[in-house]
């Protein structure tokens, strides 16, 4: 886009906004007013909203659309009126494309967009889509309340897409051609162009164009490939990883430079083009999530890339080190790249080729060499490992710093890391908010807020605000927080908020694998260690320059079989509105924007665009309204004057006070042994000390699949089982409020809503879902985090602080089933507590630790775990077997499968019914999970001290999923036998069998 | 860098400074201090030096007392030492700033890298700094300001440096200390508990905490003289002048407890952490 155009549009925008402000019509009113901007918005919303909403709204739309032919316009054939509308479009765009076009013409335009954007496509046609999404939803709700007649017109998606593209092109053309002309003239031109454009579009439908991407790799080389223009970030990322031969890729990401200081992560779930806007297709491959314990990475090649990243971080000063550490790390670098120190060979190496520190001195180089000599014999991989072992302890390892100001305007830095949010002033850490402490993360405009759990002696949650340099920075920080929290703390990614109910703000969620999942996946890597060359970045770039091969992925191109896409090389940015895949879910994640939106954003409001993009995600899944609630809360806050908000913000010093009350994470082994009073060891609740054996057999599915499925499931809304936790009711009143709010913010404030995002950390551990209902969201996460930490920690085991609901075994099973595809039968066996004296080595089990909730038992009550559950439970289950089915679900129909649940408990007589009052002291608790092909074994090991006698209980849960052919008795016997073999010195005290059968087998 | 926490207490040398008569006279910088028994104070000081040398086997360097520096024996305030680096502090009290000179020279002679504060606005008392083996906590007290803490962070870049507000007329180290690589020992006063909670909130690492009846007893020294793997000692006051804390300290199972007393010197504001500086001349071996 030409800058001239941009500036012009901006001006217009502003004026438009002013006008809009003046009107300040409330959404309802607006809705009735066809020509009003807000009505446009509403319509858009409707179209984007669920099908039902759409259908309702469509009649209204038609009404509004004075031209009844509009509905026709949706079809592929472009009726005359279309031209008209296009001209309108032009006007609108030129007017500032802010979506707030006061002119009726503009309104029509948006209507078109609305129609074009089908829910299935999930894209929001209007450029504002993201921003507008919340508004749309609100409007929708209002409409329903008012019971306005709404009609949905059947629209042909492909046609719509084409049209959008056309429109985009037009816009571009217009901008280019007429930057200086009068609006009228422009319109005319547009109209004339239209015909041509249309033809072109139709042709283009069958062709796909590609764009060349350049990715700077960690070794300094550049990877070039051609990508289909509408490709999502994931496609490029996968190609890069393939090029790198990297399997453990979840720690990495692609970034692009928005400005010299600002780096953005490419969202894999969204189209690249949308994220880049006008920026060139240049990316860098970087570590996104620094593994807290690199030694747990499976492959050397992964560690190698991490090393490369860290060397960059060190050389750039992002990772500060002392002189000694610079020297030590440098010496490992030399060992890895040059091998053993060789005096003769060494002379030929110029150490200035290596950058060991931001400012490298001769003294440092000498020290590096001196230390290098001591590493004789270390293989490159070992040297890398040593490098990482030292680097990971640096205090700024993996900390992503963001500049901000506190409520008093003092410059600080916010550091996002695996454990939470760190607050720095200069180099000093002045506060820290561990993830468990944070209840909610949100941003609005350039403010970033965290709501923290009340300290021990306080009753109220406090919200702390930080001022970021600008809105984009606030949003970036927010996203990074959401991603880090999900990656490090959750077992599986958060479900994106649903679109059905009113929500404000971004729906962005991390959609990749969590650390727990990627670790799990890594265990399945089965290939010989890949060969790779280690070269320092500098030298590599010298050697390999120009040797890069551009790869064009043909399959990609084929992929985009959708309606034609317009190419406007050299003309600026063309936005495509085509949804690539039929999978509804994916679509949701990668919503498309209307062309004019792009223009607008590109010119003036770059910031908003991102927001909009994110908001598009709102269309994803219905059902999760927890965010809604909070967004309402936030609304109240946000309504207040900014000063008020700031007043609300606790000053840093106050924060400190709050944090005094917080507790450190217990390291049980250390202090428990010594019987030192921990700062605070929270051992809540009693858990069963039982060995649960739950068997789960899948039909010809491998353990890995389950993982994958789990992830996918999270993206959607599914199982009734998990439902209760997720479903929140939105009160009509609130909806109205928010709606009105949105309407008020038609012009200047319009973007405000969109500019905010909310993220309420939740934990998706199946066991925890029940509790989530009660808004005790954070309690659960703490468990999760412990699990994660435990993984990283010594195998010795660390006690969880908090005991998970012990009763949850049954529910867990059920939910897991939901996750697992086609699980006709489920059987779970809970084996009763094994008693034994103290030290018992569970490590020898080949089980791998994974992110399961650990049950910490203070009171050892071997009784009834599952008994809280009625013997037979009819459960509604959603079964998802593959992508095709998934699509169905995501649209509307939720297959319901009847299931029958049985729980049988065997208790060994030797168990003493358990003195409830007997409070033991928890020594350790450990959860180990291993997946084999058809079974999942989860082992909870709990060590307690009871009256001076330490006792270890192992609770093992085996889940077997399979069809009805399974011989359950045999499976049970097998499980018990295995348990006995594994722990010969322990006794089985209880066995609980939980069996779930799908009643409705007809579905299969 | 070694294993986290392993570096805590590694030492080969200890540095102390004799007690001048001016300490008892209340002259100079010591003005306002309660009168103390000079002979007793010197005796305590002598015993401390003896334990450091004989019981712990450290090379002991004793700087001669200077009458112009009544608080000279409290050389813990004059430097922060970690690994091969010594940050020369800038004591809050201008009268005490000359104390650093002798200490600087001695540390330099021992081969440490000397880092100066170099900022007129920074104040730092060494006993406001707690090194846990994994990170630093700097108490923002009456004597140490933010800028001083910042320089600590700048000096020891490998480590997180967090600030801890310290209320009352105390240094951070007179409220808490390390009882082991993963154990924070703290007094039971409000100020001490508050500091510990603040540290708990700020840290990424899990520490156990041991609460002692007396704040002063928490000012103990966890020392690992000699080669790596040698058994650690805990120099503490629980056995002598602060018997109430004896029992609690015995919960620390992995260390050899070495009781000393310095109740007379305490009247001048001294604690174990301020009466000696320990360092290793082979920090990375």
Overall description:
The complex is a heterodimer of chains A (1004) and B (285). Chain A is 42% helix and 15% strand. Chain A is an alpha+beta fold and 1004 residues long. In chain A, the strands form five sheets. In chain A, strands 4-3-5-1-2-13 form a six-stranded mixed β-sheet. Chain A has a five-stranded antiparallel β-sheet with strand order 14-16-21-20-19. Chain A has a four-stranded antiparallel β-sheet with strand order 6-7-8-9. The radius of gyration of chain A is 29 Å and the shape is globular. The relative contact order of chain A is 0.11. Chain B is α/β, with parallel strands linked by helices and 285 residues long. In chain B, α5 (190-202) links the parallel β11 and β12. The mean pLDDT of chain B is 89.
Outline of this structure?
Chain B: The active site is at residues 171, 276. Chain A has 37 helices and 22 strands. Chain A is an alpha+beta fold and 1004 residues long.
